[in-house]
Amino acid sequence: MAERLAVDGDELGRFMQMLSKSTDSLRGVRKALSEATITGLGTDDLDSACEEFQEDWKYGSQEIGKQTEDLAEIIGKSRDSYREVDKALEAALKKAGDGNRGGNKGGNGSNGGGKK
């Protein structure tokens, strides 16, 4: 069962880097799109449709970028929490193992129930 509880902190870190690169890429696309001229592509209707698309794309890509940043932050916190729990569990198991080695000196098999 323990093998199913494994968390790869390095893989979470790589995923966070990938999300960060995606956010940077979206910023680059938004910048390039904002510098593109809309007028003069064709008819007034086409120019208007292109302007609306650019506004929608800007809003949508900004929202995706924000959510990507939020997701990267959440993953980072989760990774840190898993590491803390892993260290605490390791320390608790070590302490329990050390206690079992020195704590059973009597060896009489009594369960301490109080009956004589």
Could you characterize what this model shows?
The chain has helices spanning 9-35, 44-103. By secondary structure, it is mainly alpha-helical. It has a domain at 10-88: Helix Hairpins (Orthogonal Bundle). Helix content is 75%, strand content 0%. Residues 93-116 are annotated as: Disordered. Residues 99-116 have a biased composition (Gly residues).
Supply the key terms.
single chain; 116 residues; mainly alpha; Helix Hairpins; 2 helices; rod-shaped; disordered C terminus
- Would you identify the regions where 5 or more consecutive residues have pLDDT less than 50? 109-116
Order of helices and strands: HH
As for the CATH topology of one domain, it is Helix Hairpins
Q: What composes the largest sheet? A: none
Taking all Cα atoms into account, the compactness measure Rg is 29 Å
Number of helices, where a helix is a run of at least 4 consecutive DSSP H or I residues = 2
Shape label? rod-shaped
Short account of what is shown:
The protein has 116 residues and is an all-alpha fold. It is built from two helices and no strands.
SSE topology sketch:
Blueprint: H1 9-35, H2 44-103
Helix pairs in contact: 1-2
